Every structure is written in C-alpha cells, then in structure tokens.
Amino acid sequence: MNEQASGHRAGPVRSAAARDAILAATARLFQGQGYDHLTIEGIAKEAGVGKQTIYRWWPSRGALIAECLTDGRLIPIDFDVPYSGDLLRDVEEWLGSVLAILETPHGAMLLRSLVAAAAEDAEVGDHLSASLGVDRHLAERLAAGIRDGQLAADAPVELLGHAVLGTIIVQSLTRRPDVAGALRELVRYLVAAR
Q: Which of 85, 111, 150, 153 registers the highest number of CB atoms within 10 A of its CB?
C-alpha cells in the first residue's frame, strides 16, 4: 500500500506543514503577546508540535522571529524606494510606507518587540533592516542621489539609511508623539546636506 492510499503524508510534506505551523504560531503569538512573553513551549503548543521539532530547525526564539521577518509574516517584506528623479520625494514616499505600518497601534508594539528580539539575536536586527529595505533599496536610491548630484559625493549611504532606521526605533521606543514629523525633518536634513 502506498503512502497516498493509506492517507499518511510523506516526510517532506509533513516537514513543510510542521514548519509552516511553527512559523504561523510564532507570528501569531509574537504579534499578540510580544517578545517578552514568547516561549518555545508556547509556540510548540500553539503549532501542535514538540519542542524538539522546533529546536531541530531553529536554535532560539530570535532565529524564529528572524525567519518570520524573512517570510513576511510580521511586516511586509522588501519596501521599495521609488525613483522619480526627486530624491527627497522618493525617500519620503518610502518612509510613508514604513510609517503606515508602524503608526498602527499594533505596529508600534510589534516594532518594540522586534527591537527586544534583536537585543538577544543580531540576526533579527539584520532581517528587520532588510525587510524595511534599508540595506538594499534605500541605500541604492541614496547612491542614485549621489550620481544625480542630489546628495554629496562622499555621503555614507549605508550610514544614512541606518540613521533613519535608528531614529524610527528610538522614536518608537520612547513613544514620542509625531514620529512621522521627526523622521521627515531628519530625512529633509540628510538629503539636503550637500
């Protein structure tokens, strides 16, 4: 009798289903409870798997969160930065897309939880930066701004992107009002500095 006739799933199918269940459970619990209350035991229970199954694929909660970021389960992945020819307008449009998610009540809590996870696991911070497009799309757009003469020739494009991301994080952690206004002011200053 073959596996299909018996109704049993093959190993890779079962592994894919378990992986998906674990990541879905991690995202649900992380978004609902935050990082501080997220446990491997809770994830295993929510996913309907054993803890050993989770540890077979991920060494820590942070590694699970990083993979959830990579899969787009926590925030949309890969925010594009448009190219209209106007550097300031393009960066502000990207920033608007990022803030649209972070300005929701759930988004601010999610970012604070991601920062807590990144404090334990650097991979989470790397994936957050990549998911928001800071290291790739924003850096590329800023480099195009240099080529177009809209940014100083020696502008440190990666550092500028990290300065914006750092400001987003600090504004969120301190729960300051008008995060968008502060970020737009910073972006205008950075882009105008020639």
A: 111
